[in-house]
């Protein structure tokens, strides 16, 4: 490993990927934010209303956060698996229709709040319903509504068995992280050779069937989206959670003590816009030479699994493929760390060879060194521009619209930012003044001002958070980085979407036509 100053992107005569060639728009909304009666957004009828709005308003893309099974802290960026789907998204009403649940089984969930997600109560009410559905389905030999279950298990054999057993063993050990389990269970390779009680094997089968349900329902969502001309942008955190099936099943791929499983170093970022102490994420860091030795096989498998769920994939924290912040495992914050070299362009060459049509977005935010930008440009991946980061400084700020690149994605803000209105209300006056002068606005409808600025940008793709379409203030914020609790809870009400459908979809569609984000020849699809 070497210091950041020696990191260079390998020269390339042409970018590896070149897919973002048409102008378009999309909306950022994680499906947990859908309305519904069972405590969290699910893949139910709310999906149909959502896709109808997107099509009517001329949006081509729907961007989501990672769809994996969330762990402690409820963050979709800290999942128990980077391959599995989130069981909380499963529509229980559909399971009732298929005969796996009764109305009485659903009653405990109907008392959960409708206006936000209470993850604590959701945990103690939804999991019993899911296990009951699995018990009924597996015991009765009932019809499989989402295709052949055994074929599903064979298709996902490279990750499903280890994930299902990991979750079953975690339950057996009262949720303890895997490195605290008995030595004979500490890694998947050891657990496979151990005599496991029937209760664990039965639980593992249930976890496997729950994944069958999720993937089956999500495939229906994708089919509905495709029918309406909507493509889904997924999200892949570059790092996996330490307490995950990924690390438990593949410890050799990470910088872990190969006996105890404990990390030697962990991931994070140095002090930045979001935190004076940096961000100490705690994820295990990759052992990149081991990945390189087998042609990045695990990563390629992971990307294929992600593309089963989406059409385009945003890679979070892209800069770590160039250089990553390596923090001692016992550090109290992220200030103590050093830059280490990532795999660089050779990784993306392997992706290109295996998946020549892959469409990726590079989350290239943060304090970027020239080598990171060189790598991004060598790959050809579109980067990101955040309007909230543009104002209050000089004219050379890369996020100011006059500095945008066509091969990029512009956002008013992301899941980590406040809403445009919430941000503007607390921004220093020098920043607000810059916004008003630059956009030639009064600032009285800043949410829509930022939406229009995104549409006007030369960036080929503009993604708008739904909260900005609603003109929400800080009550609509989805995540505050570094805050350990209270995130990921925001949900909207059906009448809110219905209102902007009636009031704003025609205006948004017209904006898309005005700024070339809807191809005229495709316009006849928009009003069906």
Description:
The protein is of the alpha/beta class. The chain has a domain at 4-88 and 220-381 and 493-525: TIM Barrel. The protein has helices at 45-56, 92-97, 103-106, 119-140, 149-155, 160-172, 188-191, 198-227, 245-249, 288-293, 297-307, 345-354, 370-379, 420-426, 429-439, 446-456, 466-469, 494-514; strands at 24-28, 61-63, 231-237, 265-269, 279-284, 312-316, 323-328, 338-341, 360-362, 383-386, 408-411, 461-465. It has an eight-stranded parallel beta sheet with strand order 9-6-3-2-1-12-11-10. It has a four-stranded antiparallel beta sheet with strand order 5-4-7-8, with no helix packed on it. Helix 1 (45-56) links the parallel strand 1 (24-28) and strand 2. The longest helix is centred in the middle third of the chain and has 30 residues, at 198-227. It is globular and about 70 Å long.
Question: In summary, what is this structure?
Answer:
With 528 residues, this protein is of the alpha/beta class. It has 18 helices and 12 strands. It has a domain at 4-88 and 220-381 and 493-525: Alpha-Beta Barrel (TIM Barrel), CATH 3.20.20.
What CATH calls the topology of the domain at 4-88 and 220-381 and 493-525 is: TIM Barrel
* Share of residues in strands: 5-15%
Tell me the helix content.
25-40%
Q: What is the straight-line distance between the termini?
A: 56 Å
